[in-house]
Design brief:
Helix content is 0%, strand content 53%. The protein starts with a strand and ends with a strand. It is globular, with a radius of gyration of 14 Å. It has 120 residues and is mainly beta. The strands form two sheets. Strands 2, 4, 5, 6, 9, 10 and 11 form a seven-stranded mixed β-sheet that branches. It has a four-stranded antiparallel β-sheet with strand order 1-3-8-7, with no helix packed on it.
């Protein structure tokens, strides 16, 4: 059974870097052809795909966030991490990690989500 679990500080100050880690069990980050993604949902808003790292380590980012976003992985611990620099209150959201099956381009597993609030 594939499981994803997000971890993050609940509160981040404006201008700081927001860092979230997703721990994966029951699957490998290097298995073809999966893409390990970050998605967020701001209060009252819809789901927003932020970026992904694929089985080869290549990364993909939402263009609007490209200059603030980095995703990297640790294959020894089966974790992947999102860093979002220069946080603003508009980055307040529930953040999810999720897996995309590249054969069908669909999300097949999700973490439970974690609330991150950006506030002074």
């Amino acid at each position: 059974q594939v499981q994803l679990q997000e971890s993050a500080p609940g509160l981040v100050k404006p201008s700081e870097t927001l860092s979230l880690t997703c721990s994966v069990s029951g699957a490998s980050l290097t298995t073809k052809y999966y893409f390990w993604s970050w998605v967020r949902q701001p209060p009252g808003g819809g789901l927003e795909w932020m970026g992904a790292i694929d089985y080869s380590g290549s990364t993909y980012y939402r263009p609007a966030l490209n200059d603030r976003t980095s995703i990297f992985r640790d294959t020894s611990t089966q974790q992947f991490t999102l860093q979002l620099t220069s946080a603003t209150p508009e980055d307040t959201a529930v953040y999810y990690c999720a897996r995309v099956d590249g054969s069908s381009w669909s999300f097949d597993y999700w973490g439970q989500g974690t609330q991150v609030t950006v506030s002074s």
